[in-house]
Design brief:
6 helices; eight-stranded mixed sheet; globular; single chain; two-stranded antiparallel ribbon; Rossmann fold
Length: 217
């Protein structure tokens, strides 16, 4: 796996990461969602540099100009519900992308800390020979990303796989490195060293879905 630690080089991205981690700023859910969208845009711009382009003649009011334009068909796939703000940020950049949405969540056994990933809903175009960008803001254990990728393979095999996450754990990164294709690109804003007993990233930022859309039952 090829890891792109985007905040390693200082930029305005670091400010947005600091704000989504800050428990006081987190009280403003609109600001939280907006910052996630902004980070999706910044990371997508960096990702776009690795894709394929082709020359195309563009007609302006005063003549013809040859430009290099994107030559890859992108499918943007997000895990509901926490992935929605990040999805929108990425979609602002890849505005011609096809879109997929997958419901995946932790199903706990007998109210214990043990869980498996339950997938109840998939809406996707075909992904055969396309560039698949899989979006999930929190890369904790990595099990959701792997389960969703394996589910999407029922709809074709992409020519390239990119994952965009905001905060990850070292354990989760190690897990997807073992389970996903060798040439997978992971674009991650920042990562933390550990998970707690419940499988949440520490220090992390909490539950991204709850912070964006309110607590669930």
């Amino acid at each position: 796996m090829i890891i792109h630690h985007v905040s390693k080089q200082n930029s305005i991205l670091n400010k947005f990461i600091a704000e989504i981690r800050d428990q006081e700023i987190q009280k403003d859910s609109l600001r939280f969602r907006t910052n996630i969208e902004r980070m999706g845009e910044i990371i997508s711009y960096e990702l776009s540099k690795t894709l394929n382009y082709k020359p195309e003649k563009i007609t302006t009011p005063l003549g013809i100009k040859q430009m290099n334009v994107l030559d890859d068909q992108v499918v943007l796939a997000s895990i509901l519900r926490a992935g929605l703000p990040l999805h929108m940020g990425v979609l602002h950049i890849f505005d011609n992308a096809e879109n997929a949405f997958i419901s995946a969540y932790r199903q706990h056994v007998d109210n214990s800390d043990d869980f498996h990933i339950q997938i109840d809903y998939v809406a996707t175009p075909g992904i055969q020979d396309k560039v698949l960008i899989l979006v999930d803001p929190m890369l904790a254990t990595g099990q959701s990303l792997v389960a969703v990728y394996e589910k999407l393979l029922q709809f074709g095999r992409p020519k390239a796989l990119h994952i965009i996450s905001i905060i990850g754990s070292q354990q989760g990164m190690d897990y997807i490195n073992q389970k996903l294709p060798e040439n997978t690109h992971l674009w991650i804003a920042d990562f933390d060293p550990q998970l707690n007993d419940k499988g949440y990233i520490v220090p992390g930022l909490g539950d991204a879905g709850d912070l964006a859309y309110g607590k669930k039952l």
